[in-house]
Structure formats: C-alpha cells, structure tokens
Design goal:
Elements (H helix, E strand, L loop, with lengths): L2 E6 L4 H12 L4 E8 L7 E4 L2 E7 L10 E4 L3 H13 L3 E4 L15 H4 L9 E3 L3 H17 L1 E10 L6 H14 L8 H9 L16 H13 L6 E8 L5 E10 L5 H10 L3 E3 L8 H4 L3 H4 L5 E8 L9 E9 L2 H16 L1
Parallel strand pairs: 1-2, 1-5, 2-4, 5-6, 6-7, 8-9, 11-12
Antiparallel strand pairs: 3-4, 8-10, 10-13, 12-13
Helix pairs in contact: 1-11, 4-7, 4-8, 4-11, 5-6
Bound molecules: 3-amino-D-alanine.
Length: 340
C-alpha cells in the first residue's frame, strides 16, 4: 500500500528533516503534501528523485491524507491537527499540545511502541530531551527498575528553531578554524561562551516547563506513574545535538557490567565508553559526533558514588541529534509502525 503523507510545517528545521527521514526510512509514500505558511507556498522541495511544491496550510489540504506529520508550534497544532483527524488522517504530532492528553499515546518506538494501538487519531512525539534521555534509561530500567532520575541537559541551539541555529552557525563561521583548537565549533563555543539555564517558562517549584517534561512525559512513556525526576535544562552554544548527564536510582541492584551489557544491546543506543581510547571521539560521546545521525551515544558509565546504596545508583552521559532522533526520526519511525 502507498500512503498520502502530509507534513504540516514543512519548512522548519524539523519539517525539513522529516522529508529526508521519509526517504531514508523508505516510507511507502504514494503522494507527499508539504504544507507551510502562505509565504512559502510555491517553493519546490526535492523528494524521491522529483520535486514537491509547497502548499499553503489550510484545513482543506488534509483531504485525502492518510498520515499527517505535525512540525509546528503548540498553538497551530491545537488548531489544525484535529481537522486533519476529521479529514480521516492519523496524526503524529511533534508539538507539546497533546503529549499529556490521556487519549493520546506518547511514543518512543524503542520503549512503548505498543501504545500506538490505542490512538484515537493523534499520536504525540515526545520532547527531544525526553527521547534522548529515555532511550538509554529504558534498557537499564528493564534490568533493575528505575525509581528516580537526576538529569542535567545541555541543549543545542537547534531546539530554539532554525533562526537560533542560523545565528549560531554564522558566529561559528565567523570564528573560522582556530589554530589553537582543532575543532572550530569547540573554539567558537569557548568564545561564544555563555549558557542559559532556562528553556521555557518557570512552573511549579521553580522548575521550567522544559524541565517538568522529563518527569511528566517519562511517567507516561515508561508507564511509571511514581517516577521522580529532578531535571535542569540549559541552553548551550552547540548547533544541533543535545547532551545529558543522567543519574538513575533503581529498586534492585545492578552491576556496571549488567548496565554495560544492557546498553550495548539496546536498540537506538551506541555505547562509546573507553577511557583508554587515544581520541576523545572514541573515549566518550560528544555533540559534534552525534549530529546528523539517529543513535543516542552513551558513555561515562559509572556508579553513582553519592548514592548511599551504590549497588542501586548509576550515572551516564549521552548525546543525540535533537532534530533527528529528538524529533523527525522518532516521528517518522512512529508513522512507519502505523503502516506495518
Ligand atoms: C528545545 N526541547 O530544545 C525544546 C524544543 N525543541 O528548545
């Protein structure tokens, strides 16, 4: 069967990536509709050896669509996507609009693909920092039962959308290749050098909306209503990969060897954890290495020596591409499961 697929928000960083992911994942697209604002209508986008013309996003555009991928902000998603369902499409939405709606499954395919079965027209794609932190957490949860997470995130400019990314990219280009430091971005990062410990607005107990997402979404995705998460989300001068320091507390003992084995075998994970490696690129994950690929790289695996019961505490570091696995790739993986 071939499917008529529409992307709402086709010109943003995530929407553009979705077009590429449909090709990469050999999605059975019979017809692709690219929907965006009136000012983008008429532009042509390369797809599957041909070209697709961008149309203005209007409710009528959903007629005949089997699947709609949402890559727009919460307000537009709330307004437009129910109309896509009314037109008979199944929606995979990357906004936060429906993520916590009890009638909407919130899905990371490596964790809870089975939840897709109870959708009522909309399936929500989790927040990027949630996906990147939970993909490596889940295999460890299956070994010893996670009860608590302490997470610090280092989130790329891409999370602030294409404009934020373009701004940082221009600064990095202006820095050129610093002789003292081989990686231009590392050089620029030290020169751009500021960190912003706020993503989203401040909510309960002084946590930001972004920080509460990991607890709220983590509980729903892993079916752990008692999960407790302390998260600090920071914007850093990196282009498109998010990094996270994750400390887990478990209800049962887990050895480092068990953790290492579970991560090495986990779908969606690449274990990069060799303190003796000559190159930093092989020693641990770095955002510069995880950009533009779909795996979550995990390293710096160690016991949590602050946990009074060290047999039940593990800390790791992970990096993943915010636009890909953090958004577009995960959404297209969900859509692909709908076709299987
Ligand atoms: C961010 N997670 O990084 C949010 C939205 N992508 O800004």
């Amino acid at each position: 069967k071939q499917y008529t697929v529409a992307i709402l928000g086709a010109t943003g960083a995530v929407g553009t990536q979705m077009v590429q992911c449909l090709e990469e994942q050999n999605f059975p697209v019979g017809k692709l509709k690219l929907l965006a604002s009136a000012r983008s209508a008429g532009k042509k986008v390369a797809f599957a050896g041909g070209e697709v013309e961008i149309e203005e996003a209007r409710p009528e555009a959903f007629e005949g669509c089997d699947i709609v991928l949402g890559a727009v902000d919460d307000d537009i998603a709330r307004d437009m996507l129910p109309k896509a369902v009314e037109a008979g499409a199944v929606v995979v939405d990357n906004s936060h609009a429906f993520r916590l709606d009890p009638d909407v499954p919130l899905v990371v395919p490596e964790i809870n693909a089975e939840d897709i079965s109870w959708h009522h027209g909309i399936i929500a794609n989790p927040n990027c920092a949630t996906i990147i932190g939970l993909v490596p957490t889940w295999p460890l949860h299956k070994v010893a039962g996670v009860t608590r997470m302490i997470v610090s995130t280092y989130q790329a400019a891409s999370g602030a959308g294409a404009p934020g990314m373009a701004e940082l990219e221009a600064q990095i280009a202006a820095m050129g290749r610093g002789e003292a430091i081989p990686e231009p971005r590392a050089f620029a990062a030290q020169l751009v050098s500021n960190l912003i410990p706020q993503i989203g607005g401040f909510k309960e107990e002084g946590y930001t909306s972004e920080e509460m997402k990991l607890q709220n979404e983590g509980r729903k995705i892993m079916h752990l209503p008692e999960l407790r998460v302390n998260c600090t989300c920071v914007r850093v001068p990196v282009l498109r990969s998010h990094s996270e320091s994750v400390t887990l507390e478990f209800e049962r003992d887990i050895t480092l060897e068990e953790a290492r084995e579970a991560l090495a075998a986990a779908p969606g994970v690449k274990l990069v954890d060799d303190r003796e490696a000559a190159s930093a690129h092989d020693r641990y994950p770095m955002p510069i290495d995880t950009s533009d690929q779909d795996l979550i790289w995990v390293g710096r695996l160690r016991r949590d020596i602050s946990n009074p019961n060290t047999a039940r505490g593990i800390t790791f570091w992970c990096c993943g591409d915010q636009i890909r696995k953090g958004a577009a790739t995960n959404a297209v993986q969900i859509a692909k499961l709908l076709t299987e």
